[in-house]
Amino acid sequence: MQYFLDGYRSGDPRIQPVAEGRSEVQGPLPEEVDVLIVGTGPAGLLLAAQLSTFPEIVTRVVEKADGPLEVGRADGIACRTVEMFEAFGLAEKLTTEAYWINETHFWGPAPGDTSRITRLGRVQDVRDGLSEFPHVIVNQARLLDFLLEYMHNSPSRLGVDYGHETLEVKVPENPDERVTVRLKTAEGEKTVRARYVVGCDGAHSVVRESIGRVPQGHGEDKAWGVMDVLAVTDFPDIRFKCTIQSAEAGNILLIPREGGYMVRLYVDMGNIAPDAWLTKEEVLAKAQAVLAPYTFEVKETAWFSVYRVGHRVTDKFDDVDDDQVESRTPRVFIAGDACHTHTAKAGQGMNVSMQDTFNLGWKLISVLEGRSPASLLHTYNDERHVIAENLIEMDTRWSRAIGAAQDSDDPEAAMKGLAEVQRQFVTNSEFTAGFATHYTPALLTGDDRHLHLASGFPPGRRFHSAEVIRLGDAKQVHLGHVHRADGRWRLYAFADMVDPRSPSSRFNALMDYLASDASPIRRFTPKGADPDAIFDVHGIIQQSHLEVDWADMHALLKPHKGPLGLQDYQKAHAPVLGTDQDIFDLRGIDRGAGALVVVRPDQYVSLVLPLDGFDALDAFFSGFMVEPN
Ligand SMILES: Cc1cc2nc3c(=O)[nH]c(=O)nc-3n(C[C@H](O)[C@H](O)[C@H](O)COP(=O)(O)OP(=O)(O)OC[C@H]3O[C@@H](n4cnc5c(N)ncnc54)[C@H](O)[C@@H]3O)c2cc1C
């Protein structure tokens, strides 16, 4: 954590000073805002948290419920989501409270005595080296609390306007006019005019309907009884995530929960009428039958629901029709369940929803801060729609595999089906961990032509962190953790082999270029702003931190910033030499040539370039950035 840049303050450094013109309490909903977020699920609050650090952007969040969510709903948090939470400084809190899924176990009818269930397999949940963070489980309500607290501690002290139901969104023909949003509140109807509206209002989205977008796909045939319970049992794997298939009684998905005692059961209740409801007693009886002969005595039910959702993707995630993309820019967006719904079996609901708005957030910031033209916003639909399609495809395949094992009357076929479930679990693991996202070459993503210089950082994939030693204080840190959710670009310059103090070092020549008036850093950073206000450059040398002093590094890596002109000591790094954790080996950096890795504000790699790829770097940023006035 870096703080005190603006001067010393006592107290918790996570609580930012209130921005000028803002107050501790945000006050009544104004008639005009920059961004109106509808809905406080994971998608809405992740976006709100990101925008809250920009007090110059007037953001408000409306929610039809009277207060925050308290129990239930989703609980699976993929490794990728924890990486994203690290950018908000929330990963430690999350992983401390959460249950960690280390292994998944597969139970089925015991060979030779199918009246019993037995453990048929166990698989490591996340393969080694995929991420520095685990796959965890925590209540959706608790995760939302973290985001609400972050917003509250931000310079804009952003809160939620509860009891505000969005009734309708109207987009005027004139692009200079704001979007009108009609709201129902306890005091009557209100109208808010917003530059941008983001519908994070769930599967039955009113925002989606208002802009004429339609979810396409099919309904779910099965109903799942979901219960969070505190129970006493002799089932030995109660603290492992398990898929449990009995020969006669059906199947359940068991997910241990945070705190060490609670478990969640997803109980397959088969096909029931669309409007039928089930009692928790019916669901529990079924779960007990599946677990037999093990006993399962519920002492308290914390939450119960019947969850039934189809596989659907909305046709487009913004208000601009395909034939108008050249002439109009989007002003209304939808995200999360408003765009895609699928079963809970792969635990993707919260994760993909928050990734949607992490993708959108920095783009809205860039446009509203005047750094990029509004056409940048087309890339939200372009990038996220295909991700949603892939998600639905994976979830359909996975549901089918589970279904085939479950619906077979023949124990041998069921056994084969279970083997297929286990195989697919392993095959899908990159997807379920959140790492299958691969943006294809386009405005914000380069191609693979220089990938040989840094093979572990493919463009379009998330920046895969590894450890380094900070030159300024010899602290071993994760390089990717310098990345904050602050809308800035990261440029990681991996040095060539030459001593960085030598005039023939290409690393140093790159630093000279980046510091020059010709570089995109100078051209696109507003005059008077900190030198790293838009681009945060980090240098990683190949020599030991014992050989090269921080003081010897290029001035670009030691900028003076803030009102006091303090110097930043955290931008120069060395590898962890003599171990298998050397970042140059781990991420396939060409030691002779070095490499420049350009990372987007949402942690995805845009480009890998040679250290002298000045023109390509300039052309890339000139494609979607505008010089400040
Ligand atoms: C009842 C329920 C049970 C679920 N159970 C599970 C589960 O067991 N396992 C699982 O993995 N996933 C479950 N999910 C799905 C999971 O919660 C979602 O995938 C995830 O929360 C998606 O996040 P989101 O932000 O897109 O939408 P949501 O979390 O649905 O959030 C939408 C928000 O918008 C608000 N809203 C809706 N309409 C309006 C309006 N007109 N005006 C203002 N506010 C509005 C809602 O009150 C809500 O707070 C459940 C969802 C629901 C609704």
UniProtKB/TrEMBL annotation:
One of its GO terms (molecular function) is FAD binding. Residues 437-628 form the Phenol hydroxylase-like C-terminal dimerisation domain. Its cofactor is FAD. It holds the Pfam family FAD_binding_3. It comes from the Bacteria. Residues 32-393 form the FAD-binding domain. Keywords: FAD, Flavoprotein, Monooxygenase, Oxidoreductase. NCBIfam families: PRK08294.1. Serves to protect the cell against DNA damage by alkyl hydroperoxides. It can use either NADH or NADPH as electron donor for direct reduction of redox dyes or of alkyl hydroperoxides when combined with the AhpC protein. Belongs to the PheA/TfdB FAD monooxygenase family. This is Alkyl hydroperoxide reductase subunit F. The lineage of its organism: Bacteria, Pseudomonadati, Pseudomonadota, Gammaproteobacteria, Oceanospirillales.
